[in-house]
Amino acid sequence: MRHLLSMEDLETDEILTLLTTAESMHDVQRREVKKLPTLRGRTIVNLFFEDSTRTRSSFEIAGKWLSADVINISGKGSSTSKGESLRDTVLTVAAMGVDGLVIRHHASGAARQVSQWVDASIVNAGDGMHEHPTQALLDAYTMRRALGDLAGRHVAIVGDLTHSRVLRSNLICLARLGARVTVVAPPTLMPSGIGTWAAAEGFETSYDLDAVLPSADAVMMLRVQRERMSGGFFPTPREYTVGYGLTRDRLRLLQDHTVICHPGPMNRGLEIAADAADAARSLILDQVSAGVAVRMSVLYHLLAGGSAEPAARAGAQRTGATTVHEGVS
Amino acid sequence: MTRPDIVVPPAGSDDEPGQTAPTSSSARVVMGSGDVSRALRRVAHEILERNKGAHGLVVLGIPTRGVALARRLVQVMAEVEGVTVPVGALDITMHRDDLRRQPVRAIEHTDIPAPGIDDRTVVLVDDVLFSGRTVRAALDSLADLGRPRAVRLAVLVDRGHRDLPIRADHVGKNLPTSSSERVQVLLSEHDGVDEVRISGGNR
């Protein structure tokens, strides 16, 4: 694995390898000394052209716990605000000798474009309305810890689907893991062409949240992204909540084991009520702590190995029937 | 100890990619299942003798084969002393010094038994002691987990050719080898049979 640009690039076994490694990384968080020497001497730049709290800081912690040197550059306050192009910014950063570049940008496809300009390993930390692969991985990780294997499980993804890169990455990831997905949104927030997309990827769509909730094993509430809306998607916030918010009344529709996820940041009272966000079944804070573990796993797999690797995939040597003692033993 | 009588296909996969695997026909068996079992019993007794009992011991195996060996040692100790010594696994992948020379490795599970390792005597268990680099990594990894009172090293086979100033406290068998030879430890838990083989080499 050289870059993580899109969930599309990951096969099921690669996803499972990343999630298994994340479990080991999660154990590290409970240790007395949280630092591992694994990425010592490697440099990671977090290049964020959009606001972020948890993604940027969890990438920073992930890198630091693996002993990499981590530098944060945000779009605001950098030369970008003086009119420097993305290409020039990236080439400048790369020229400093960077091994990994974690990038968030408002343009869909920015990460892939950047990967063609520089030699560093690129991690897509959100590109416009396209994808946010590490979020999908940490969602899958969190749900698997609560529910076990996701094959055959029913996941409802509810909310602002049009503007959601989290949705796209999650749909791919959950499909690879064998989960059944229903996406729920008001007609105005359903992406255009969702019908053909649903047919191709094999998920369902619904406008009726109350009908979907009783059979769900996990409910993933997506944020209403007011910063991406030019208005007119729903009449009033109150009306959105009545139709599509996870309210106290709707909690009663859930099965006992059903868990609640939200990628954050939450609009409390809009798409999710405080009763739901703070409920025992809410995994929202577990998602945050999983975020660090999953990002450590991603950074490990992208940056720990030798540069001249002969297309050998991580986990391949696990199938080894015998231990062979040569070189290092 | 009963062991399923399974015939295993010759070792195909290579733990160290980039090495050419010699044909298994040149392999010669240097320890049979009886030898392995007797060596482990002796090592278990030695550990108890050195420690004057099982008090304060924690046995940690280094994946993959070391974990199985650690469990067997603890089993023998239970028979001898009648106490259950905490046993676990210590993965050293993240502390290896050759990470950059190889494709990314999957991480094995680390499992530190409940009492932890602080102020205890940790016995590290591995199948083969060779360069000593694995043990170096294990010592670093232990330091991140706590502060043991002492660390001892038990191995099934010491084949020599150390790169680092490291020695084992308890050795199942000293096996003189040439550095071009390859030592394979097969255990019934993983391979269906207990056996130590040497293959390759310029003879």
Q: Helices, strands, pairings?
A:
The complex is a heterodimer of chains A (329) and B (203).
Chain A: H1 12-29, E1 43-48, H2 54-65, E2 69-74, H3 86-95, E3 100-105, H4 110-115, E4 121-127, H5 133-147, E5 154-158, H6 165-176, E6 180-184, H7 194-201, E7 204-206, H8 209-212, E8 218-221, H9 237-244, H10 248-251, E9 259-261, H11 274-277, H12 284-303, E10 323-325
Parallel strand pairs in A: 1-2, 1-3, 3-4, 5-6, 5-8, 6-7, 8-9
Helix pairs in contact in A: 1-5, 1-12, 2-12, 5-6, 5-12
Chain B: E1 28-31, H1 33-51, E2 57-61, H2 65-81, E3 87-89, E4 121-129, H3 133-145, E5 150-158, E6 170-174, E7 181-186, H4 188-191, E8 195-200
Parallel strand pairs in B: 2-3, 2-4, 4-5, 5-6
Antiparallel strand pairs in B: 1-8, 7-8
On the 0-100 scale, what is the average pLDDT of chain B? 87
Helix/strand-derived class of chain B?
A: alpha/beta
Helix content of chain A: 25-40%
The parts of chain A where pLDDT drops under 50 for at least 5 residues are 308-329
| CATH secondary-structure class of the largest domain in chain A | Alpha Beta
- The fold-level CATH name of the largest domain in chain A is Rossmann fold
> What's the overall average pLDDT of chain A, rounded?
89
Largest interface pair = A-B, 41 and 52 residues
Shape of chain B: globular
What's the CATH C level of chain B?
Alpha Beta
What does this structure look like?
The complex is a heterodimer of chains A (329) and B (203). By secondary structure, chain A is an alpha/beta fold. Chain A has helices at residues 12-29, 54-65, 86-95, 110-115, 133-147, 165-176, 194-201, 209-212, 237-244, 248-251, 274-277, 284-303, and strands at 43-48, 69-74, 100-105, 121-127, 154-158, 180-184, 204-206, 218-221, 259-261, 323-325. Chain A has a 5-stranded parallel β-sheet, with helices on one face. A 4-stranded parallel β-sheet of chain A has the order 2-1-3-4. Chain B is 26% helix and 23% strand. Chain B has helices spanning 33-51, 65-81, 133-145, 188-191; strands at residues 28-31, 57-61, 87-89, 121-129, 150-158, 170-174, 181-186, 195-200. A 5-stranded parallel β-sheet of chain B has the order 3-2-4-5-6, with helices on both faces. Chain B is globular, with a radius of gyration of 17 Å. At the A-B interface, helix 1 and strand 10 of A face strand 4, helix 3 and strand 7 of B.
